[in-house]
What does this fold into?
Amino acid sequence: MEQIILSAITRHIQDNKVIRPSQHGFMKGRSCLTNLVSFDDKMTHIVDEGKAVDVVYLDFNKAFDTVSHSIVLEKLAPHGLDRHTLCWVKNLSGWPGPKSCGEWSEIQLAAGHKRCCPGLSTGASSL
It folds into this structure.
């Protein structure tokens, strides 16, 4: 059942261009490696044009530890997800509920999905 719902949500996201084409993490056929290759290619072109490049790497590994579950759901709502789907997302098995302080605990990735590029914390390998 979850696979059917995942397929429907994925199709909605792709059909309505909710996620930018430059997104690599959590996208089928894309990974940390494709992200790094794409980034390196863009930086190489900029340097080849004689322009300066500054790069800042940010670690979002614990980003969801301090984000309110309800805020994430509020941000999902404008993207066309009805209240039943939002409720289903809120109650997904394996997703943490809010802690007593109202924050998320770390999201556990589905079985078989691994973090990639240790140290970069750019997300999971492609689904």
